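Quick one:
INPUT:
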């Protein structure tokens, strides 16, 4: 998560992400097995989406919380919480569709903002590659929470 926060700060330099408070609270006992670059890509996408959704807001906050999932002790739960405008209920189910976007298209190059690929690819990486889940909950006027659940690594004490 820390690498994703720094990568986001670097990649959004022109957009001045410094105007957004990002807090991170990850339990120290959380270890997941996965592709580091892909997980960073997913985390950066969620941070950038939250940041962009809060454009024009006076106070912009993103909180990243991680711990063992209280519903399943074999899974980690990582929440990305923003205090943005929220996603309307009629739009929320559509956000995972390839090509769906609410943003203005900022170019045709791969990875350009507004192409409707970020959440589609993030869902594929989390669910198909990492065998986890990603969901979203949102309240208009209060913000959105993206919830990632990933299998915990089978790490046993005493092994090297």
């Amino acid at each position: 998560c820390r690498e994703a926060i720094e990568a986001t700060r670097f990649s959004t330099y022109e957009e001045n992400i410094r105007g957004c408070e990002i807090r991170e609270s990850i339990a120290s006992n959380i270890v997941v097995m996965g592709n580091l670059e892909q997980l960073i890509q997913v985390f950066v996408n969620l941070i950038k989406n939250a940041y962009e959704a809060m454009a024009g807001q006076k106070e912009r906050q993103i909180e990243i919380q991680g711990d063992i999932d209280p519903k399943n002790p074999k899974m980690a739960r990582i929440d990305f919480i923003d205090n943005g405008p929220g996603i309307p209920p009629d739009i929320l189910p559509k956000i995972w569709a390839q090509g769906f976007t609410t943003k203005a298209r900022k170019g045709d190059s791969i990875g350009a903002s507004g192409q409707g690929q970020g959440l589609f690819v993030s869902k594929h990486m989390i669910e198909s590659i990492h065998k986890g889940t990603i969901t979203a909950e949102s309240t208009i006027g209060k913000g959105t929470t993206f919830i990632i659940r990933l299998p915990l690594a089978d790490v046993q004490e005493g092994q090297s």
